[in-house]
Amino acid sequence: MSRLRSRAVSAVIVMMMAITGNACTNDVLASGGPSERYRYTAEQRAPFVATQSGILTVTPQAGDRFDGTLDVVQTNPNGQLERRAGLVRGRWNAGTMDFDVMLDGDVYRHVGRSRSDTVAGSWLDVSAVGNAASGTFRLERAP
Amino acid sequence: MTSGRRVLRLCAVLVCPLAPLTAQTAKRAQPAPPDTMVMTVATPVRLSGEARSLFVVSVPRPLAIATTASVRFRVVATGAMPLLGALEGVLRPDDDRVLFTISVPGFARAGPTAVATVQFASAGARIDVPVEFDVRARRQILLAPLTDLISLTQGGRTTLRVRIDNGGNATDSVRVAAILPARWTARVLEGDRVVLGPRKSIERTVEIQAPAGGSTGAIPLTWMVRGMTGDSAAPSRERTRVESMLEVIGTADPRSAGPAVGLSVATVSAPGQSVATVLGAQIIGPISDNVHIEARWMQQASAGTPGLARVGGLSAPAFMAFSAPQWRVDLGNAGMSLSEISGLNAQGRGASAHAQRGGWMVDAIGAQTSFVEELTTPRGTLAAARATRIRNDLSFTATAAHLRSGRAQTGYLDALSLGVGRIVNPTLSARAEVAARRFARGRGLGATAEVIRRDTKSEWRMRATRAPGGADAFALAQTDLTATGSQTFGATRLGTLAWYADDAGAFDRFQRSRGMSLLPQWRLGRQGSLGGELRVTEASGGDTLSRYGSATSSVSAFAAGVVGQLNVSTSATVNRALREATLKTGLPFRSWETQLLWTTQLALPTRIGVLDMYSGLQRAFGERALFNGQHEWQLRMDNVSLPRTSQRLRGGASIGSVSALDGSSRYVTTRVNLSAILPFDVVVRLDRERNPLFSRIAGRSGWTTVLRVERSFGAPAFLSAVNTGGVVFEDTNDDGRRDAGERGIPGVVVRSAGEVAVTNGSGVYRLARRQVALVQIDERSLPFGLMVAPRQDRIGTSDRASTLRDIAVQPVSAIEIQLTLSDDPYVAGVPPSLQPVSVTAIDRDGRRFLARSESRELRVFDALPPGEYRLDVDASETTEPLTARATLPTFVAQATRVPRRFTVQLGPRRLRMFRGSAVTDTVRTPPKKKVP
User: Fold this and answer.
1) How many whole angstroms separate alpha carbon B774 and alpha carbon B797?
2) What are phi and psi of B803, to 5 degrees?
3) Three-state DSSP class for B571?
4) Beta partners for residue B911, in sequence order
5) What is the pLDDT of residues B668-717, one digit of tens each?
6) How far apart are CA B165 and CA B418, in angstroms?
7) What is the pLDDT at residue B653?
8) Candidates B544, B668, B697, partner chain A, best to mutate (most A CBs within 10 A)
9) What is the distance between the alpha carbons of residues B152 and B146, in angstroms, rounded to a whole number?
10) Would you call A9 and B606 a contact, using CB atoms and an 8 Å cutoff?
11) What's the mean pLDDT in B920-930?
């Protein structure tokens, strides 16, 4: 019986992978407008110094809201590289870009001021219990 | 009219409750038929079916008996199977059959069996109708190795015992085989063919020969039992299969006891990046009697192979570490955390070292920071040293640190500190430290203190730190106050957490957070728990350009448990959150939103692995909420051994999705991996990941693929030539010494300081190095019924002059103690639970062995060494204090596989104490006068 159940579970996984493998050829099913890409650089100052660089892609949604993705490579002080990616939710508000990045279960809130094609500000891990990671970031519009 | 048509097979629920009542009624109504009649035997009624089932039998009135007359009947059981229902009575003219039930026992042997005779008597004639039941054959063969860990040396030979059980109801003929990799041989010494009667067991000895020069480590071993087709030699289908592992240990050659060297080559293909080939090497193991090495190097690790780091690889900077019992040196990737005020998380490339001798410890680091992507940033310098003196319960530290990240305003600290710590008692400890700190924008005096109290039911920790310069100067924050605690009250556990932290740095950067949390948790049964959390947090931060804040109040509940084989945990959280933002040149912003979060996690063990499932639903409410909500799920199964590959082919897969509730976006992530062990111990691993969050090209995401080939082999070491060894023997007289006639035990694994050896056919083991560490037996490798003698489970070989160490093992005995309650009226009404009763066996030397609680009334000593014991029963924690009613038994434990059982009857104490208004029988005696 347990062998049959194992085979059934395996079959379900394979079928789901096959189905979703086709589905994910079009990852964003719908969007509110053309996406914008920004070159993202950030510096973490606590609890240890690290840098992050990558691409932030945002797609306008209803009203002043937007969502998107962040794909960064983090460099730790010993030179170790770590690639991280997550979803982005945020809004524009009178020249302020206020958005959350969800990375590996943590929520990093970013608040920055827009000037021309750049946005600069600071970020904080608002989901942390106790002392939180924090730092600064900068966005430059990418071609 | 076949018997099969007449049989109605009903479930036990329908038949059993009615049958006894019917039988009693029939007995009262009619007498038994007389025996002095003309008797005729009719054609038998034949039935067939499975064991462990109930059958309703219908025996028709014989045609030779007139249908107009009443007929007396009696069902006479042969005793082969229990019969239920009306077994005596009268058939009225309109009744044409006798009905009763056969209960076929689970242990009924296959084949036809006479069950009963139904006697019909009428008008001086009697017709007997025999009833026969043909029990269908049920075949069930079980195989179990009698040793948990099977081990042998390269090129060596070992024998082990396996037990074969026939759990079916018919004699079975099977063939036993052990399936091993190429060049291995296995044979059953008594012959591989086994004929077993039902409910019988037999043991067989299997001899296994490992190839010389073969690989070491874990080797899959598959036991297979095939049925035999009649008397022919051709085996039929597979009856059972058991997977186990062999541990192959290198021979006691100093060269093979050296470090293991591994080489790997990986090809990485990621979207948006060119295909890269990455070489890697690692070395792990002893290079001399006392020095151990661990080193790793990977090409392009620093230059960047994020695809490899993402998919089953390791992109870490190169390092080499040497360690010995009293020192350790790290080269390459080096790091050190001194303390909250003298420098945390100092990491870079260089060297760090630790040494200890007597009551002294010294730590030091010298390294450069490395931010490879910012070539304009100069490399920083990390130099620090710390000395610690430990004396009795006190410790003193002195630290000097010069830490520079290479940046102008951040990562800058010069510190000199002094600290003291004290272990007040086994449950309470404290430490404090002060430091003069100089950082980029000033200097100040830092201080930290911590108190920890920990016992079996509670743990409390309080820490306060003031570190001027904060995170810009290798600290967590300028001010950090944290208190955590947990307390257990029976099945309830209460956890608390409170914190406050603030920090400020260059460019007017500031950060502040505070909050508290309360976590009650209850244990439900053995495997369940229920809990909740109340949490209030507030965080704010900013710099010269912007300031922002967040505040949340949340209530959550969670539950976890096991349903059947399914592990389930779920949690629900209601979160009320405030977002604030203020820019110096913009309008302030402030909004509230409510969030609901529900997560569920399931883990289902299956024959091939554990299937993990996760689901998370997030919903947001509020006009200014950032989004409506999202649903996230994932299915994952890792480390799956593919069928019929003898665990040489393993795989795993996961699939997950995140989608917005309004349907605006959906991201599906897929990962698969496959690894294979090829000949010559070459391991090939393929990892693929498709993650739309990474490297999107023209709106589509591609696969990241890593193909890696690895090979490990042994390397020589600088080891002394003197061997340590001894004999593992069965100490039958419990004197700890090997006497004449005490046999050596083959195939036992002996471990010491990372080295492993296996005893040969005479029980002799050899270790390559002179051991100054403990020599221990891996008890999993002991044959069933043996254990390490209590006095010899850890043998120190600090005596360098002697290199021979014999290890005694003893046969064990299983003893069961059945607890019963006396019929005393004090306990008969509301009998106290026997769950809290503990039973201890005490040997002649006073050593105590506590029995395991198998059930409320049964205590079990699984493995008592041979000897004479007396029992001690502690029933003081029962609701009604109990004592043994008779003298507790003494017994002699002898090696036997069948547990022996003793009964201990408990009852209330003869002399009972009453409190309050209860009547007491006290003898009043006048107080004695004091004589001056």
Assistant:
1) 6
2) -115, 5
3) strand
4) none
5) 989 898 989 887 778 898 888 888 877 554 445 678 888 888 887 777 76
6) 69
7) 92
8) B668
9) 16
10) yes
11) 38
Q: Which two tokens stand for residue A27?
A: 């990852």
Rounded CA gap, B649 and B645, in Å?
6
* Burial class of residue A4 in the structure, from the number of CB atoms within 10 Å of its CB (0-12 exposed, 13-18 middle, 19+ buried): exposed
Q: Which of residues 691-720 of B touch A (CB under 8 A)?
A: 691-696, 699-701
Quote the strand ranges of B720-772, DSSP E: 724-730, 749-752, 755-758, 764-767
Q: What is the pLDDT of residue B310?
A: 53
Phi–psi pair at B485, nearest 5 degrees = -165, 155
Taking CB atoms and an 8 Å cutoff, what residues of chain A touch B511?
Answer: 46, 124, 132, 134
Contact criterion met (CB < 8 Å) for B306 and A81? yes
Among B245, B300, B237, B239, CA closest to B268 = B300
Going by pLDDT thresholds of 50, 70 and 90, the confidence category of residue B118 is: very high
Query: What's the length of chain A?
Result: 143
The Cα of B536 is separated from the nearest Cα of chain A by a number of Å equal to 10
**Of A79-88, B80-89, B824-833, which gets the smallest average pLDDT?**
B824-833
At B908, is the pLDDT very low, low, confident or very high (cuts 50, 70, 90)?
confident
For B267-292, the DSSP string reads EEE-TTS--EEEEEEEEEEESBSS-E
Name the residue of chain B whose CA is nearest to A56's CA: B693
Q: For B606-636, give one letter per residue: b (16+ CB within 10 A) or e.
A: bbbbebbbbebbbbbeeeebbbbbbbbebbb
Give residue B223's pLDDT band: very low, low, confident or very high (50, 70, 90): confident
Q: What one-character-per-residue DSSP string does B297-352 give?
A: EETTTTT--HHHHHTT------EEEEEETTEEEEEEEEEE--BTTTBS-EEEEEEE
Cβ of residue B176 closer than 8 Å to a chain A Cβ? no
Residue B681 three-state SS: helix
To test the contact with chain B by mutation, choose from A83, A104, A110 the residue with the greatest count of B C-beta atoms within 10 A, namely A83
**pLDDT tens, position by position, B636-674:** 998 887 877 766 788 899 999 998 888 878 889 898 989
The strand order across the sheet containing B749-752 reads: B755-758, B749-752, B774-777, B795-796
Cα atoms found within 13 Å of the Cα of residue B564, Cβ hemisphere only: 6
Taking alpha carbons only, the member of B312, B311, B310, B329 closest to residue B320 is: B329
- Taking contacts as CB-CB distances below 8 angstroms, the residues of chain A near B334 are 78
Q: Which two tokens stand for residue B810?
A: 């003893």
Which residues, numbered 104 to 133 in chain A, qualify as contacts with chain B under a Cβ-Cβ cut-off of 8 Å? 109, 111-113, 120-124, 126, 128-132
Give the neighbor-by-neighbor strand order of the sheet with B217-228: B150-153, B235-249, B217-228, B172-179, B193-196
Residue A42 near residue A123, CB atoms below 8 Å: yes
Using omega within 30 degrees of 0 as the cis cutoff, is the peptide bond preceding B832 cis?
Answer: no
pLDDT > 70 fraction of chain B, expressed in percent and rounded: 81
Q: Using an 8 Å Cβ cutoff, are B676 and B215 in contact? A: no
Long-range CB contact pairs, B59-64, < 8 A, 24+: B59/B6, B59/B97, B59/B98, B59/B99, B59/B118, B59/B129, B59/B131, B60/B1, B60/B6, B60/B96, B60/B97, B61/B91, B61/B95, B61/B96, B61/B97, B61/B98, B61/B120, B62/B120, B62/B127, B62/B129, B64/B40, B64/B125, B64/B127
pLDDT at B781 over 50: yes
CB contact under 8 A, A78 and B581: no
Residues linked to residue B436 through DSSP beta bridges, in sequence order: B416, B445
Query: Which structure tokens are listed for B913?
Result: 């104490």
Answer yes or no: do A69 and B586 touch at CB < 8 A.
Answer: no
Write the pLDDT tens digit of every residue in B179-212. 887 778 888 888 888 888 887 888 888 888 887 7
Please indicate if any CB of chain A lies within 8 Å of the CB of B238: no
Segment holding A4, helix H or strand E: helix A2-23
